[in-house]
Amino acid sequence: MPTLFTQIINRELPGRIVWEGERVVAFLTIAPLGPGHTLVVPRDEVDDWTELAPDLLAEVMGVAGTIGAAIKRVFGAPRVGLVVAGFEVPHAHVHVFPAWSMADFDFARVDSEVSAAELDDTHRRLVAGL
């Protein structure tokens, strides 16, 4: 069965895609640490990022850098966090999010009740910033 992320990439489930390439896709998370929190995901269903081919990992990180620079500009964050955890969905992904302090890296603080309207506005702003 395809992962949740593959279903979003294939448009079988709704998602707010901010960047799309041949091998990598980036979309907003529905439980953000801050505005613009994006997941950068390879199309290939690989569970652990350490198992990605080196060129694909480099592409994922390159996209993460592009998204991070846009998050910094659009949302005025002094830094951008990058976390590779991989426990939520068995599909390699990189979290890219705005950071004002180390507290912004605490996944216990995600906003799981962010409104669809707020996510739509964040999506519009981030896509425009890219």
Automatic annotation (TrEMBL):
Active site: 93
Keywords, ordered alphabetically: Hydrolase
Domain of life assignment: Bacteria
GO molecular function, one term: hydrolase activity
GO BP terms: nucleotide metabolic process
Residue numbers covered by motif Histidine triad motif: 91-95
Transmembrane domains' residue ranges: none
Name this protein carries in UniProt: Diadenosine tetraphosphate (Ap4A) hydrolase
The organism of origin for this protein: Paractinoplanes atraurantiacus
